[in-house]
Amino acid sequence: MRTLLAPLALAALLLAAPLALPLHADAQDPQGTADYARDGVRSGEFVRLERLLADAERRYPGRVIEVELDQDDDEYEIEILMRDGRVAELKYDARTGRLLKVEIDD
């Protein structure tokens, strides 16, 4: 199950949430993904999103435009609009924080 979070909502959630979690809401299950992510961080199963965002922005400076948590694979997907106008999509293992894949869209 994959869901999206609008950039403004992401910014608000990151500022409001002390755990800085990926809080994507599915239209049919508004709290399901958020709770799943929050529980994963609290239990120590998932790495904190802020760690992954810092790594992604260090690798590809720009503006984070989208964050997703794929619950089926326990992978975070972070999209960054780079300064040159291209979009970098980085996939991270939610459990280890390891960068799995990078795609650059022209």
UniProtKB/TrEMBL annotation:
Gene3D superfamilies: 3.10.450.40. Keywords: Signal. It comes from the Bacteria. InterPro entries: PepSY (IPR025711). Residues 1-27 form the signal peptide. Residues 50-103 form the PepSY domain. This is PepSY domain-containing protein. The keyword Signal applies. Pfam families: PepSY. The keyword Signal applies.
